[in-house]
Write a structure and sequence with these properties.
Radius of gyration: 24 Å
Order of helices and strands: HEEHHEEEEEEHEEHHHEEHHHHHHHHHH
Shape: globular
Bound molecules: adenosine monophosphate, magnesium ion
Number of strands: 12
């Protein structure tokens, strides 16, 4: 019998998850059971306390080493039933069989308030879907996903989140040898457009139907029981993607790899590979080194969103109607709503950034002319909106002279039609236009300190600043500035 003291100690040092793994009840074609491959020397380097608390995880008395064992994959927590999920995807337009090649879903954790979250380890070792990959991840890209996903969360944009990064004590070999790491990703689910494409490719109609029913129940329960449930599912996904991409466009986020396997059905931003925030406004902005044709350029994201939704519609065709021609008609009708749904979300996002409360005729033109001014004068996207939101006299002077004067007059006149006019509008604009975004040079600098010197102070400070993106603070002025000319041709690389 353990003494009471020892029992208390072991209790307080145990992680209590509340796993309930509903995905495992789906047909087995959708996953493969697979345990993480243990790592040599797991060490916790970043941990998201606020997120852990939000998930209802007990953090008190749990040592960093204990977290590292679990979140590095060396210990499988009670209730977890790890799987690699199967999916396909259109990558840069080409169809491929993929699946979790270096990630495992530990299970679904249900919080005290009843919400359900996928707990995924990324970089946890090989799976049957690894193809020629090593199943591992490098520290830099995992820290990068942590920083940017948490920044997106603070900006109020739907996203997967990051609970922790554990270094493995092993090297991974890319162009050079790098430190290995495992990221713990928290997501509403990991069901992708590519998950449906996988079942369609296998012509597995019964599993396709089971997955569609499961997805409706899990993410769109308000639409369960509608007479046409599968067109309702498609319509609900169209709506979430339209809203999501509009949010990206409003903060200058370039996802960089909008392949259909990286499109979450739940409408979260997922898979932070070569993503980055735009500095100077330019719709042609591309950061990813592999995106040579600009398929996923900033200004092309809305159209690609539509293309990806069309792949989902194709996968769902057999569920939309038994008769193919009728199914295609239904799909086209639902997809046809995407452009106007996107436009609706985009215009209300962009108008809000300009302080406009309820849209009226002429607002679209006012927004577009402002964007054209930013493009012509090569202005920093984030800082230009924040400048408009500020009531500092020198900032007002900057937009009241030269090329901006005419636009500025019309903008102030437009705000004059609302209660509170410009002053009230600016108040609202400061809640909408961030001061702080993860500037590429700051992110790179913080990653370098962590990776090369094991110094996590810069990342911690960066995360602190990005956690309150709308709250200006002169102490952090250096985080506002766009990079110098040496960063103009900044390139990102896929996080493999
Ligand atoms: P991503 O570019 O992260 O969306 O990954 C695309 C596909 O490649 C997914 O099926 C991943 O699981 C797989 N993959 C990426 N990196 C690796 C790796 N190092 N080992 C095995 N599979 C990988
Ligand atoms: Mg992916």
């Amino acid at each position: 019998m353990p003494s009471e003291k020892n029992l208390k100690k072991s209790l307080s040092n145990s992680l209590i998850w509340n796993f309930d793994n509903s995905y495992l009840k789906l047909p087995q074609t959708l996953f493969v059971r697979q345990t993480p491959t243990p790592v040599a020397d797991p060490k916790l380097v970043i941990f998201n306390d606020a997120l852990a608390k939000g998930l209802g995880l007990n953090t008190e008395g749990v040592s960093a080493d204990r977290w590292a064992e679990t979140l590095g994959g060396n210990e499988i927590p009670s209730g977890a039933e790890p799987i690699a999920q199967a999916y396909c995807g259109h990558q840069f337009g080409g169809f491929a069989m993929l699946g979790d090649g270096r990630a495992l879903l530990l299970g679904e954790h249900v919080t005290p308030d009843g919400s359900r979250w996928d707990i995924q380890l990324k970089g946890s070792g090989q799976t049957p879907f690894s193809r020629r990959g090593d199943g591992r991840a490098a520290l830099g890209p995992m820290l990068r996903e942590y920083i940017i996903s948490e920044a997106m969360f603070a900006l109020g944009i739907p996203t997967t989140r990051s609970l922790a990064v554990v270094v493995t004590g092993e090297l991974v070999y890319r162009e050079t040898a790098q430190k290995g790491a495992v990221l713990t990703r928290i997501a509403a689910s990991h069901i992708r457009v590519g998950t449906f494409e996988y079942l369609r490719a296998r012509k597995d109609l019964s599993t396709l139907k089971a997955l569609a029913d499961y997805t409706l129940q899990r993410h769109f329960s308000e639409r369960v029981g509608e007479p046409a449930p599968y067109s309702a599912l498609l319509e609900a996904v169209v709506e979430r993607q339209a809203a999501l991409i509009a949010r990206w466009m409003a903060v200058g986020f370039v996802h960089g790899v909008m392949n259909t396997d990286n499109v979450s059905i739940a409408g979260e931003t997922i898979d932070y590979g070569p993503c980055a925030f735009m500095d100077t406004y330019d719709p042609d902005t591309v950061f990813s080194s592999i995106d040579r044709d600009g398929r996923y350029a900033f200004g092309h994201q809305p159209a690609i969103g539509g293309w990806n939704l069309a792949r989902l519609a194709e996968a769902l065709l057999p569920l939309l109607d038994e008769q193919e021609s009728r199914a295609i008609e239904i799909a086209q009708e639902v997809l046809g709503k995407y452009p106007q749904r996107f436009e609706h979300h985009w215009l209300s996002e962009m108008s809000a950034k300009l302080g406009i409360q309820a849209n009226q005729e002429g607002d679209r033109v006012l927004v577009q002319e402002w964007l054209d001014l930013l493009a012509t004068h090569k202005m920093d996207f984030t800082n230009a909106f924040r400048m408009l939101s500020s009531d500092l006299p020198q900032d007002q002077a900057a937009v009241s002279t030269g090329a901006f004067a005419d636009w500025h007059l019309r903008w102030t006149a437009r705000l004059g039609q609302q209660a509170g006019a410009v002053d009230a509008a600016r108040e609202m604009m400061r809640q909408k236009n961030p001061v702080f975004i993860p500037r590429n040079h700051r992110v790179e600098e913080a990653l370098r300190a962590a990776d090369e010197d094991g110094n996590y102070k810069p990342i911690e400070e960066l995360l602190r600043v990005l956690a309150s993106p709308f709250q200006d603070d002169p102490v952090w002025v250096a985080y506002k500035n766009p990079p110098g000319p040496e960063f103009r041709d900044y390139q990102t690389f896929c996080g493999t």
